[in-house]
């Protein structure tokens, strides 16, 4: 991690009619950082991520992603990021190799690069025997790990992960985070949304969204100290309870 800013948001807001999904959020993410974007379902995490990926235009505020303006340079942003949605994003009726070739082509890699990177990736994941299998035949955990590997296949500056470990067992979740650590060590910035508060412990810093707003932002250790909590679940509970009291 260094001092280069990978993502910068200032008072970013997204409204849908009278409903405010993201309410004036501001933060910075450093290059190579693992940044957790935490909150309950419906807190505004996915809406915010879509704006940073160039998939949705903010209603107001400013944001730069990989050095590009979210209003003016959405297509440039898409070229410099990887993205993994909470819904499985690979083609189930294609083999592992065919998926790698397809997405490698979309990312603009040459056939030589695709073949070399595919070989390295399949060896790293231990999928030599399964490389010609249809993706539909793989267990969910392997599908998720493969989808993440495809999201960083082109060595993007930033990868956005939207609830990447939803529905998988704890052991597979931990293995998935090993892949995230590897990517971070390569200099890729990780922006990950999750509602699993224990996963906050794996991040360099986290922000916690409550009702569209950032209720707290810091390292997990500092947040636990500030709220005199033993776990991030306790921190989140205190923040959510405080927000409810304010609303009442």
UniProtKB/TrEMBL annotation:
Question: A single GO molecular function, which one?
Answer: ATP binding
Matches recorded under InterPro entries: AAA+_ATPase (IPR003593), ABC_transporter-like_ATP-bd (IPR003439), P-loop_NTPase (IPR027417)
ABC transporter domain mapped to chain residues: 7-236
SUPFAM superfamilies for this protein = P-loop containing nucleoside triphosphate hydrolases
User: Which key words are in the record?
Assistant: ATP-binding, Nucleotide-binding
Q: Which PROSITE patterns match?
A: ABC_TRANSPORTER_2 (PS50893)
Task: Name the domain of life.
Answer: Bacteria
A single Pfam family it belongs to is: ABC_tran
Q: Do you know which PANTHER family this protein is assigned to?
A: ABC TRANSPORTER G FAMILY MEMBER 20 ISOFORM X1, ATP-BINDING CASSETTE, SUB-FAMILY H, MEMBER 1
Question: What name appears for this protein in its UniProt entry?
Answer: ABC transporter family protein
